[in-house]
Amino acid sequence: MPGQIPPDLNSTLSQFTPLTPGLTQTCDPVETRHGIVDFARRTAIMGILNVTPDSFYDGGRRFDASQAIADALAMAAEGADIIDVGGESTRPGAQAVSEAEELVRVIPVIEGLRRQVSLAISIDTYKSAVARAALDAGADIVNDISALRFDSAMISLVAREKVPVILMHMRGTPRTMQADPHYDDVVREVRDFLAAQLYEAMDAGIAAESIILDPGIGFGKALEHNLELLRGLPILAALGHPLLVGVSRKTFIGKILNLGPDDRLEGSLAAAAAAVLGGANIIRVHDVAATGKACRVIDALRFGAAQ
Ligand code: 7PM
Q1: pTM of the prediction?
Q2: How far is CA 1 from CA 4, 5, 6, in A?
Q3: pLDDT tens digits for range 60-84
Q4: What does the pLDDT look like over 106-136, one tens digit per residue?
Q5: Closest atom of ligand 1 to CA, residue 174
Q6: Element containing residue 231 per DSSP (H, E)
Q7: Chain centre distance of CA 192
Q8: Is the CB of 91 under 6 A from ligand 1?
Q9: CA 13 – CA 284 distance, rounded (Å)
């Protein structure tokens, strides 16, 4: 009969589970020296500020402090919640940069930016000396792609300074990580690694509320591993810490679409939307305005439309 719903379809209404852990899972805000990043009602946007001559997308553009500061101010105006300043490219096969060179690149930018903005600044480094100088210059968060493993002085620095830290999963080192990556169960292995680093950090005196976790999309992962991790984000969100996800213009999107970095915006937005539905709280991106709009729509699904 027209208009009648088959009884077995009605029973699926009660079985229906919400689309997203974001609808049920909440996580506490992160306190920084320059304000609180709150995830209760919206996804936070981290703008990428590469101060390097060789990054895969924006390389060379800002190898000059005043250009880098101008770009960061533009990202702040577009609604970035955090600016992530990095002086060493971690793309696959990239050469390591000396500590002195990394300092020369990032410190003037952080000092200059700090004078002009009150938002949170993160320092993308695994070197404790760079992190220390960056914190002294006004940075608020340590973004360590090695999850505190590469420099043995990093863990005590973060504990002493009482700043939030991002622990990211990576297989191997940036130079070697993309050489035939293999996992038996990538989601389980990344989860177990992050849990182990989390406990090590807390044992060293880093507050649980200061720890942000990140699956490290593209760091020692084949295309299928990156997709499995995006599908498995709810499992990582269940660790109960804020989740940061970086998909912006990465190679896995290029592989799906057969497009170079300049033509990966739409794919990046789709991946960001999927990450937010999976429970991500911070999205690390080159395109702050566009990603902000995409996230606001997903946030309305996640948290309700009243902002
Ligand atoms: C290949 C891999 C090329 C990675 C470029 C990149 C992340 C990060 C980077 C991330 C955190 C890029 C990167 N990616 N820090 N630093 N999470 N926490 O896209 O996903 O700039 S470097």
Answers
A1: 0.94
A2: 6, 9, 10
A3: 566 678 999 999 999 999 999 999 9
A4: 999 999 999 999 999 999 999 999 999 999 9
A5: 2
A6: helix 223-231
A7: 18
A8: yes
A9: 36
